[in-house]
Specification:
alpha+beta; Alpha-Beta Plaits; 2 domains; 4-stranded antiparallel beta sheet; 10 strands; rod-shaped
Length: 233
């Protein structure tokens, strides 16, 4: 008798769970999205510098084969670069050393290390707040020890301010999409059952890749994506 009662109790629980699941299956789940374009106010430049020699073949304007080559150290190049950046309004705290490297070069075919010379180089990260400053750096700084200048990353200090607005727009977008799907089945949209944030993203338009011709028109796209589950009436 006890076994029979236990079996009936188990069957009752399973039936109740099944009925609840059947009811909870009446939902529609969609992803809502919202996107906004903003102007970046945090622009990170990667500047690579190297040591060099004055009066060598590459210094074509001043080259004189009768004069001795004069080495310009990496620290001298860096000091000159920092001075030029400071004159353009870049704060000293915004200039950071990323890494130092050493490259060996020597006569072709000679594998003896004693015949090779080490060439020092350094990568710097420079943070500026506007494309006006970026343009000035590209156009006005003429230092021979600079190997390359590239845009590393764009960001905005105001991105957080738009989170609530974008989440509300993403939720409304999800609601509109869900309603269209449900109305196609001659049903009505019910209440929100769950919301999951899928995260947003930064996306850059017209990414700066040209060393000497920055566009100054780059924007950041920030977004919100929500996975929303609605009940169906």
């Amino acid at each position: 008798m006890k076994k029979l009662l236990l079996l009936l109790a188990v069957l009752f629980c399973l039936g109740t769970t099944y009925a609840q699941n059947e009811k909870s299956e009446k939902f529609v789940e969609v992803t809502g999205k919202a996107v906004k374009e903003i102007t970046p106010d945090q622009i990170f430049l990667n500047i690579s510098i190297h040591e060099y020699h004055k009066n060598d073949y590459y210094d074509r304007e001043n080259y004189d084969p009768n004069k001795k080559r004069e080495k310009v150290s990496l620290s001298e190049v860096e000091t000159e670069l920092i001075s030029a950046l400071r004159k353009l309004g870049v704060s000293r705290d915004a200039i950071k050393t990323e890494r130092n490297t050493r490259r060996w070069s020597g006569p072709s075919g000679n594998l003896l290390r004693s015949n090779y010379k080490a060439k020092q180089s350094r990568s710097l990260s420079v943070k500026v707040n506007s494309f006006k400053t970026v343009d000035a750096i590209f156009n006005d700084i003429k230092i021979r020890g600079i190997s390359s200048i590239t845009i590393g990353r764009l960001a905005s200090s105001k991105a957080k301010n738009y989170e609530d607005q974008l989440n509300a727009e993403a939720l409304e977008n999800a609601k509109v999409r869900a309603r269209k799907l449900v109305e196609g089945l001659d049903k009505k949209l019910g209440e929100v059952l769950s919301i999951v944030e899928l995260g947003g993203y930064y996306r850059v338009n017209n990414y700066l890749t040209d060393k000497y011709h920055p566009t100054g028109n780059d924007k950041i796209k920030i977004s919100s994506q929500l996975k929303v589950r609605f009940g169906i009436k």
